[in-house]
Write a structure and sequence with these properties.
Length: 430
């Protein structure tokens, strides 16, 4: 399709707009010169039909329920690889050789500690502060400690900052969790793999040894893979926009965490579990499905629906399988929340409203049940999403910084406010 053109007739004038094709997926109509040619802007609140960039990192086919990281199907990566292999793939574009993987694991592992003065930031928070509030703060604060990796024009510093973010997020997340439950911070242990290290930093206590359950650490590693990247979603677009001003990577990731927190986005896993707890029993599911369909009721089924997936979210399928694995390993029989979730899914997928609007369970529908069974409180669910998505944010940020055509992002608007008018002195106002 490259080289083809489309023609827009605007105000009686034909305007030629170039069409660009990607490797797979929808082509794009390049409107970057439209304002200069017509004096008009395009209008697309929510960016439902707008491509913000060219990217080689992740591809989603929402109709077919396909998710590829650098061309590899998520199902194969989740089945055969581990999270740090996925991190390498997202950052470098290719699967690592055995020696490249060993070197990458070594480099990440040796960046897991944070500057000990970071501990003091936590003390300023109330113990019941939401861990996402803490994560926004301490992630941004990293830029105050790592001046040797905030010059984004230096490729070496960009890579060091990327490794530091991937390595330190589990440590900061575990510290946020420990702080919220009044337990001492647990330092990373370098001989453990990424997910095992995180589980130990969350659940070990100084007064006894902690044995990592390999089934749980494998399940958590897979959950991290599922959450690693997802094209230009709201938080990734936030990171790109922040990065387009030249802001340092730690500040950009902090902005991404803030955006992910919203219940329409990464906060949905916490909201979905709270919804299941509010429904309480399988026999009340129909009542809530009716609420979700009621135009006058703002209630939505959390963990259902997606801007891109108009089919089953492929991550939700793998998540559901992982949920059963974890519950079996933990000997959790007939988890009431799982029963409610399965009943809700069955009813919704047969309901005309959900079929017509193509609403399917998304990744957040089952993740909460799994994380709760592992011992994480609901307030930590989105923190784990942010932990896993950090590599995607960083890879997209690097791609944006290294894109020669990138400029500061600066959307325009359709102005519907007051026309120009003169100031009225206060004595003359009604
Ligand atoms: C994530 O973008 C990503 O890739 C995000 C993510 C990632 O990995 O980064 O996949 C992670 O954020 C997953 C989504 C988690 N959010 C939720 O589960 C919250 C519940 N779902 C929604 O609020 C909603 O589905 C969104 C926000 C996910 C998508 O919203 P859209 O694309 O703007 O769709 P919409 O709100 O315009 O809904 C279309 C219609 C509406 O009805 P009509 O106005 O056309 O009559 O579907 C209805 C909505 O009312 N609808 C729902 C619904 N979701 C949409 N009705 C009931 N329950 C729902 N969950």
């Amino acid at each position: 399709m490259d080289g083809k053109e489309s023609t827009l007739n605007f105000d009686g004038k034909d305007v030629a707009l170039p069409v660009k094709a990607g490797t797979i997926g929808p082509s794009v109509i390049d409107i970057s010169k439209l304002y200069g040619q017509t004096g008009a802007f395009t209008y697309d609140p929510g960016f439902t039909s707008t491509a913000s960039c060219e990217s080689s990192i992740t591809y989603i086919d929402g109709d077919e329920g396909i998710l590829l990281y650098r061309g590899y199907p998520i199902e194969q990566l989740a089945e055969h690889g581990d999270f740090l292999e996925t991190c390498y793939l997202l950052l470098y574009g290719e699967l690592p050789t055995a020696s490249q993987k060993a070197d990458f694991d070594y480099r990440v592992t040796r960046h897991t500690m944070v500057h000990d003065q970071m501990n003091r930031f936590f003390l300023g928070f109330r113990r019941d502060a939401h861990p996402m509030a803490i994560m926004v703060a301490v992630t941004g604060a990293l830029s105050a400690f790592y001046h040797d990796s905030t010059d984004i024009s230096d490729p070496q510093q960009r890579m060091i900052a990327s490794m530091r973010m991937i390595a330190k997020m589990p440590t900061l997340a575990a510290m946020a969790f420990k702080y919220s439950i009044g337990q001492p911070f647990v330092y990373p242990k370098n001989e453990l793999d990424y997910a095992s290290n995180f589980l130990r930093m969350c659940f070990a206590v100084p007064c006894e040894d902690y044995e990592v359950n390999p089934i749980l650490s494998r399940a958590l590693d897979r959950i991290f893979i599922l959450h690693a990247d997802h094209e230009q979603n709201a938080s990734t677009s936030t990171v790109r926009l922040a990065g387009s001003s030249g802001a340092n990577p730690f500040a950009c990731i902090s902005a991404g965490i803030a955006c992910l927190w919203g219940p329409a986005h990464g906060g949905a896993n916490e909201a979905a579990l709270k919804m299941l707890e509010e429904i309480g029993t399988p026999d009340r599911v129909s009542e809530y499905v009716a609420k979700a369909k009621d135009k006058n009721d703002p209630f939505r089924l959390m963990g259902f629906g997606h801007r891109v997936y108009k089919n089953y979210d492929p991550r939700a399928r793998i998540m559901q399988k992982t949920t059963h694995e974890v519950l079996n390993e933990l000997g959790v029989k007939d988890d009431p929340l799982l029963e409610i979730a399965m009943e809700l899914e069955q009813i919704a997928l047969r309901d005309e409203y959900f079929i017509e609007k193509k609403l399917y369970p998304n990744i957040d529908f089952y993740s909460g049940i799994t994380l709760k069974a592992m011992g994480f409180p609901t307030t930590m669910f989105t923190v784990l999403f942010a932990l896993a998505r950090t590599v995607g944010w960083i890879a997209q940020w690097k791609e944006m910084v290294e894109d020669p055509s990138q400029r500061i992002g600066r959307p325009r608007q359709l102005y519907i406010g007051a026309a120009e008018r003169d100031y009225t002195p206060i004595a003359q106002r009604g």
